């Protein structure tokens, strides 16, 4: 599957965080993708992961006084 290096990096981070192999993560995404193309679903999953991390990071930062 052809993906840009940035997406592979996020997918690798996702797999490491869950303590599974990259291949296992891709297989899991493959079962969840429905009619979507696997590469597109992987990109969207990586994007959702990054957005969730960014959102969680903003919630944790204390506001300046």
UniProtKB/TrEMBL annotation:
Gene3D superfamilies: protein bp1543. InterPro entries: RHH_dom, RHH_sf. Residues 2-49 form the Ribbon-helix-helix domain. This is Ribbon-helix-helix domain-containing protein.
């Amino acid at each position: 599957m052809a993906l840009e290096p940035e997406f592979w990096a996020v997918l690798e981070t996702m797999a490491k965080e869950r303590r599974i192999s990259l291949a296992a993560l891709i297989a899991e995404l493959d079962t969840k993708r429905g009619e979507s193309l696997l590469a597109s679903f992987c990109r969207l999953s990586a994007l959702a992961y990054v957005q969730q991390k960014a959102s969680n990071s903003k919630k944790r930062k204390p506001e300046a006084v």
